[in-house]
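ok so for the tutorial part 2 we go from a plain amino acid sequence to predicted structure tokens. step 1 is just haveing the sequence, like this:
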Amino acid sequence: MHLIGFLIMGAIVGWLAGKIMSGHGYGIIWDVVLGIVGAFVGGFVFSLIFGTQPTGLIISFIVALIGAIVLVAIVHMVKREPIRTT
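step 2 — the prediction. this is what the tokens look like for a chain of 86 residues:
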């Protein structure tokens, strides 16, 4: 059950990160993939820095969102796109 919740939260975070960073996202599939990978990376970095896993829905959501935003910014830099278009 934890995996399903992680995937759902990653999908929501990916969609939100795509909207925050570029305004249009990369499409539903790529937004979900970037959100899931970003959530994993964000949780991993959080555990390295603080020595514990993020617990609680709100903290996990914030950590996943930050990880996904950083990952989307990296993808923008690799593709040589502007990081945020207004």
